[in-house]
Amino acid sequence: MTTTEHQSVPPTSPSAAVTAGAHATESARAGLSNLRGPAAGGADPQRVATVVGAALEGIRAAIRDHEVTYAEFDAFKQWLIAVSDTGEWPLFLDVYLEHEVEKVAARSQQGSVGTILGPFWLPDQAQLDSPATLPMREDEPGTPMILVGQVTSTDGTPLAGATVDIWHTDDEGWYSGFASRPPAGNLRGVVRCDDQGRYELHTRKPAPYTIPLDGPTGQMTQAAGWSPWRPAHIHLLVAAPGHRTLTSQLFFTGDPYLGNDVASADKPELTLDPQPTGNGAEIRSDRDFVLEPES
User: Fold this and answer.
1) Dist. CA 95–CA 21, nearest whole Å
2) 132: phi then psi, degrees, rounded to nearest 5
3) Is it true that the peptide bond before 90 is cis, omega within 30 degrees of 0?
4) For residues 258 and 27, what is the distance between their CA atoms, to the nearest angstrom?
5) Is the sign of the CA dihedral 76, 80, 82, 86 positive or negative?
6) Is residue 61 assigned to a domain?
7) Over the range 60-93, which residues count as b (16 or more CB within 10 Å of their CB) and which as e?
8) Predicted confidence pLDDT, tens digits, the chain (295 residues)
9) Which of 12, 175, 242, 254 has the highest count of CB atoms within 10 angstroms of its CB?
10) Cα torsion through 141, 147, 153, 158, rounded to 10
11) Is 102 inside any structural domain?
12) 27, part of any domain
């Protein structure tokens, strides 16, 4: 059974909570998850008081409005401890809160539409010249897919040497580096565009998957009766010197989990409609990216 089968009861998570949590926590601790702007400077006490105070008051309001009992409060404490023990804080925050931070950031941004980074990016992947084939196993399962496009600035200037950092799951919903099945670097790579900012990459269509269900984030999601599924998607970091790096994901038309993404990251503007190339089962989609100059 694979994660691509539509079911009322999700299958076993494609990556163990502890394994995924440990990797994501190390990336966050090293600051590798902040790829969209400079690191925060010194804390402004007034800003801390305002934001943290509002967050705490929201929790207090939930306690008051829903008459939370001591038994429920103790269960909440135990859940917080479990999130810490498994290293799932990056997963929980990226799934349930990052999309709101991304919406705020997008208010002042130009260029192509972006979305959340998520917890599964890894640095130091294979550097590839376009046209490129992502690293994969000789018998890599799944539908062969070509993604083609051009990277330009907001004034239409092609961005020579721009890079497209890409990563996604395999046909069974597994991320390399966060699960034991795929080899290191599988279906990950940084593709260098040509002198016209054009790229062409060959890969496999990814599969939908659930967030890890054996950890506290998945258990909370199921206890609330929420869908733990993410639609099939491709992650991208599109970069060029002197321009703001675009963090985005690309989804696929017809996916049963579009509009019900547990991470609230899917957007109509980011949905691909790949077409057959006539070369067996191979499909192709075109997607251009526009980057905003740094101020």
Assistant:
1) 13
2) -135, 150
3) no
4) 28
5) positive
6) no
7) eeeeeeeeeeeeeeeeeeebeebbeebbbbbbbb
8) 234 343 433 344 444 555 666 666 766 666 655 555 555 566 789 999 999 999 999 999 999 999 999 999 999 999 999 999 988 998 899 999 999 999 999 999 999 999 999 888 989 999 999 999 999 999 999 999 999 999 999 999 999 999 999 999 999 999 998 888 899 999 999 999 999 999 999 999 999 999 989 899 999 999 999 999 999 999 999 999 999 999 999 999 999 999 999 999 999 999 999 999 999 999 999 999 999 999 7
9) 175
10) 120
11) yes
12) yes
pTM: 0.88
Q: Is residue 207 part of a domain?
A: yes
Q: Which two tokens stand for residue 272?
A: 């691909």
Residue 197, amino acid: G
Please work out, in degrees rounded to the nearest 5, the angle formed at the alpha carbon of residue 290 by the alpha carbons of 129 and 253: 85
Report the CATH number that the domain containing residue 142 is assigned in CATH: 2.60.130.10
Instruction: Let me know: does 186 contact 171? Beta carbons within 8 Å.
Output: no
- Between CA 293 and CA 295 the distance in angstroms is 6
